[in-house]
Design a protein that fits this description.
transmembrane; 10-stranded mixed sheet; transport; potassium:chloride symporter activity; 10 strands; potassium transport; mainly alpha
Length: 1043
């Protein structure tokens, strides 16, 4: 029980310190320390800290757990909190550098290409170009190993290998993309090893086992079909072996490695023997060892039964004369002859350079002997693609990081030593092959000239079978290792949850074996098997490995250049220039190998990256790309001018003021919908709200409010930032937001808020005061203000208007906001099909025809499409209705200014004033007007006919009666109400059925005593309209006719 508890504790300690969001209050260190609490508090030395012991444990109690921290088991990473109850005790790893890193890397790097293709690459590309190919590839892997060592020694790397390092260094998007590419590379490597196994079996061990027999001229096609059949059988067999007993695969790894090492030793032994005793080649090349080829040998080789004698004699006598003069030099100095490349077309004869073979008749060519034909066209870049897989496998050590005694020491040492060893083997083999074997034999890919034996086997000592059997078992073992490792890599990516559609592959058997991932891996492997050609599969996996290595180098370079505080690798022999060089070399090799494969691999990685970004990677791993973003943001913010931007760069940077209810939920979600519809300007969005109280008391409510607002922003697709402010008064909180929201040059320039619908309610009589003060503050801060009235009637992001108008009532010019906003709205799908109409008001002295022409020209220069209409509004006498509205407004104002009465008394007083007022003015027209003016329920439609009728009806009696009520100081209110009533009538007449009406918002009075009257004016101005956006400009131009 105690052991299990300790294991869990260690596990959660990893969770706590890797930043996955488990709060310290829930840490099992505290929970498990409950029993020791009394002992902890016995001493008085730490009494000063005893109140914080719940959240901050004593260091003395943690040091033992810190020092003895062990990695989690293979395939288990820090996010698997739900499975902690099933976890077994972690075994103490005992593997050192040699067994844990050096030998696995050696086994993975040395393999099929060395035995099957290196001799052919040397013969085709020549010693010099082969040396360049191998040096480039080895330099690439060495630079990558240096970068990998730096990342691997920067803290504890739980088992997960290269995927873990890349994803935690570059973030979930790059991690997922490169992780899947690395998985595909490992899977195709399995296919390549299986194809190599079959090639050795059918070509060198048992050619008679071929199912499809070669007919005349169709040897290649028959071989590919044999590859497909045998490959499918072997992959099924290997998948079953991996499924049933993966532990046996791991145990056999050392046996397979022994086969590889014995084979290489046999090659070097054979080279030493060749120096004293040249190899004894069989019939096909026996003449190379004789200064005077015997007549019997040449006639046996070139005079084939069934051919006419003239052809036989032609070839026979030509070869006699050629080999009498040339063959001795070829044997003594093959290295000089093999220095340069001999590239050829598909189907051409393998022949000695500068000495073309006799063009015999077609009968000789069809007969096959004595000619060997090339099966593919060869060129330098293709050979790079075929060779590169032979240097992959450098990640084998880091993949076992969970099983190492000291991973931070073993991974750099073991990996770099393994790469140095294998690089020496490859480079020395190139020189030795070029020096010991004749060029035409090297170019004979399948050893047809040496009786169908492996070409490298001709050098082996004591027998060619050492190489054949060794290479067969090493390729088998490498294939099994790929089929074992690839599903685990896929399982790790699936369990991270960053690529949703592969999460099913995170499940497996009860013991954690990845069953579904194994099935997918076998299926992808089968694709490589169906390609059937080793030379075609090799460049595919080269692409994926190169991409993986490129991002390892990028991760190291980014972390080094950013100088993040957490970047403290124990491995000191790295530099960002080396990482950058490695990254450049990887990218160059990708396009050298095959530019179209490179583009396809990059497209696949790009699609995965964008998919993870689109789905929203919610993981925060403290990665370098996040750090890079922060550095870039800081650099950009410092470069952005702190002053106002040029008019051409102006865009609405919104501060959206939300109201929250008692449950901290947003009262008007449509305000965020409208915000996202306005965001065609691609500007900043800050969503702010105010909680009343003190921060210490409201801390929990603040977090809850922020979560609710962010959740709603996600639903409404509003891209921006959330800022919740706690203030003793709502009024001060709004002021703080207007003053301090934003950072540097990225500050808001426009405030968007909802109209306070309940401002007339007596229990909410401060809401209008806050609103008017907010209007004043935005004006003082030189910020634009947008007020959405009837916001709950505004469309959601899912709605689509198929027709209708966006009407702009341009009364006064305050910077052009009224022109710009409809243009931005019409970029969104909701408003796209609405037409824009612009109305302006002409007074008595204005030339309305000229105004219309000027406005049309102005819109033409602004590149805006809109209908233009000039509305004439003449001076009329003030109507009785206007006086009645003003009187009601004055009476209500007096009511609100009375001394502080109780809530009930205030309501009674308001009712009495209303009743008295209604009784004293009970003419039919006034009654109708009062009824029409009741807000909330009855909408007033004030038409021109009604206005004219009202003007002349009982003009002398009513108007004179009202005029007596008001003295001179109230005439300004009457005039304002007159403007509101008249303008409302005109707007209703033209825009009552518009989808949205934009109006200039008049400013509040300079005298604060009339604030409540200002609210009444705005209410009358917008009465009867469904959706209204009141716009108040910032006083600066926001739209220009210039380019």
């Amino acid at each position: 029980q105690t052991k299990t508890t300790a294991t869990k504790t260690n596990y959660f300690f990893l969770k706590q310190y890797t930043g996955d969001g488990i709060s310290r209050e829930s840490s099992p260190f505290i929970n498990n320390a409950e029993m020791d609490r009394g002992n902890m508090y016995e001493g008085k030395n730490m009494a000063l800290f005893e109140e914080e012991m719940d959240s901050n444990p004593m260091v003395s109690s943690l040091l033992n757990k810190l020092a003895n921290y062990t990695n989690l088991t293979q395939g288990v990473v820090e996010h698997e909190a739900d499975e902690d109850t099933k976890r077994k005790e972690v075994k103490v790893p005992r593997m050192g550098t040699f067994i844990g890193v050096y030998l696995p890397c050696l086994q993975n790097i040395l393999g099929v290409i060395l035995f099957l293709r290196l001799t052919w690459i040397v013969g085709t590309a020549g010693v010099l170009e082969s040396f360049i190919i191998v040096f480039m590839c080895c330099a690439c892997t060495m630079l990558t190993a240096i970068s990998m060592s730096a990342i691997a020694t920067n803290g504890v790397v739980p088992a997960g290998g290269s995927y873990y390092m890349i994803s935690r260094s570059l973030g979930p998007e790059f991690g997922g993309a490169v992780g899947l590419c690395f998985y595909l590379g490992t899977t195709f490597a399995g296919a390549m090893y299986i194809l190599g196994t079959i090639e050795i079996l059918l070509t060198y061990i048992s050619p008679s086992a071929a199912i499809f027999k070669a007919e005349d001229g169709e040897e290649t096609e028959a071989m590919l079909n044999n590859m497909r059949v045998y490959g499918t059988c072997i992959i099924i067999l290997m998948a079953v072996v991996v499924f049933v007993g993966v532990k046996y695969v791991n145990k056999l790894a050392l046996v397979f490695l022994a086969c590889v090492i014995l084979s290489i030793i046999a090659i070097y032994a054979g080279v030493i023997k060749t120096a004293f005793d040249p190899p004894d080649f069989p019939d096909h090349v026996e003449y190379l060892n004789h200064e005077q080829p015997s007549l019997e040998l040449l006639s046996r080789l070139y005079c084939i039964a069934g051919l006419n004698s003239s052809c036989c004699q032609e070839a026979f006598f030509y070869l006699i004369s050629y080999y009498e003069t040339e063959v001795t030099i070829a044997i003594v100095f093959p290295l000089v002859d093999n220095l340069w490349s001999v590239y050829s077309e598909k189907g051409s004869i393998v022949e000695k350079k500068n000495q073309p073979s006799v063009s015999g008749s077609e009968d000789i060519k069809i007969g096959g002997r004595p000619y060997v034909f090339t099966d593919i066209m060869t060129y330098f870049t293709m050979l790079v693609g075929i060779y590169f897989p032979s240097v992959t496998g450098i990640m084998a050590g880091s993949n076992r990081s969970g099983d190492l005694k000291d991973a931070q020491k073993s991974i750099p040492t073991g990996t770099i030593l393994a790469i140095s060893t294998t690089s020496f083997i490859y480079l020395s083999c190139i020189v030795l092959f070029g020096a010991c074997i004749e060029g035409v034999i090297l170019r004979d890919k399948f050893g047809e000239a040496v009786n169908g034996n492996l070409v490298v086997g001709t050098l082996a000592w004591p027998s060619p079978w050492v190489i054949v059997i060794g290479s067969f078992f090493s390729t088998c073992g490498a294939g099994l290792q790929s089929l074992t490792g690839a599903p685990r890599l896929l399982q790790a990516i699936a369990r991270d949850g960053i690529v949703p559609f592969i999460q099913v592959f995170g499940h497996g058997k009860a013991n954690g074996e990845p069953t579904w991932a194994l099935l997918l891996t076998a299926g992808i492997c089968e694709i490589g098997i169906l390609i059937a050609s080793l030379d075609s599969v090799a460049p595919i996996l080269s692409m994926f490995f190169l991409m993986c290595y490129m991002f390892v180098n990028l991760a190291c370079a980014v972390q080094t250049l950013l100088r993040t505080p957490n970047w403290r690798p124990r491995f000191k022999y790295y530099h960002w220039t080396l990482s950058f060089l490695g990254m450049s070399l990887c990218l160059a090799l990708m396009f050298i190998c095959s530019w179209y494969y490179a583009l396809v691999a990059m497209l696949i990685a790009g699609c995965i990256y964008k998919y993870i970004e689109y789905r929203g990677a919610e993981k925060e791993w403290g990665d370098g790309i996040r750090g890079l973003s922060l550095n870039a943001a800081r650099y950009a913010l410092l470069r952005v001018e702190d002053g106002p931007p040029h008019t051409k760069n102006w865009r609405p940077q919104l501060l959206v003021l939300l109201n929250l209810d008692c449950e901290q939920l947003v009262k008007h979600p449509r305000l965020l919908s409208f915000t996202s519809q306005l965001k065609a300007g691609k500007g900043l969005t800050i969503v702010g709200s105010v909680l009343q109280g003190t921060y210490l008391d409201k801390c929990t409510e603040t977090q809850k409010a922020e979560e609710n607002v962010k959740a709603l922003m996600g639903v409404e697709k509003t891209k921006g930032f959330c800022q919740i402010v706690v203030s003793p008064s709502f009024r001060d909180g709004i002021s703080h937001l207007i003053q301090s929201a934003g950072l540097g040059g990225m500050k808001h320039n426009t405030v968007l808020m909802a109209w306070p619908q309940s401002w007339k309610q007596t229990e909410n009589h401060f809401s209008w005061k806050n609103f008017v003060d907010t209007v004043r503050e935005t004006t003082a801060a030189q910020q634009a203000l947008l007020v959405a009235k009837n916001i709950d009637l505004f469309p959601t992001n899912q709605e689509r208007f198929t027709e209708g108008n966006i009407d702009v009532w341009w009364i006064v010019h305050d910077g052009g906001m009224l022109m710009l906003l409809p243009f931005l709205l019409r970029q969104h799908k909701v408003w796209r099909k609405c037409k824009m109409r612009i109305f302006t008001v002409a007074q008595m002295d204005d030339n309305s025809i000229q105004m219309k022409k000027d406005l049309q020209m102005f819109l033409y220069h602004l590149r805006l499409n809109a209908e233009v209409e000039v509305v004439e509004m003449f001076e009329n006498d003030i109507s009785a209705f206007t006086y009645e509205k003003t009187l009601m407004m004055e009476q209500r104002s007096q009511m609100l200014k009375q001394m502080q009465l109780s809530k009930n008394e205030r309501e009674r007083e308001a009712q009495l004033i209303h009743d008295r007022n209604t009784a004293s003015h009970s003419t039919p027209a006034v009654k109708a007007s009062v009824a029409a003016s009741v807000p909330e329920k009855v909408q007033m439609t004030w038409t021109k006919e009604k206005f004219v009728a009202e003007k002349h009806k009982n003009k002398d009696t009513n108007v004179s009666g009202f005029k007596d009520i008001f003295n001179m100081k109230n005439q300004s209110n009457v005039r304002r109400m007159h403007t509101a009533v008249k303008l409302n009538g005109v707007v209703l007449n033209k825009s009552q059925h518009a989808q949205l009406v934009l109006l200039n918002m008049p400013g509040p009075p300079k005298n604060r005593k009339g604030d409540e009257n200002y609210m009444e004016f705005l209410e009358v101005l917008t009465e009867g309209l469904d959706r209204v956006l009141l716009v108040r400009g910032s006083g600066r131009e926001v739209i220009t006719i210039y380019s």
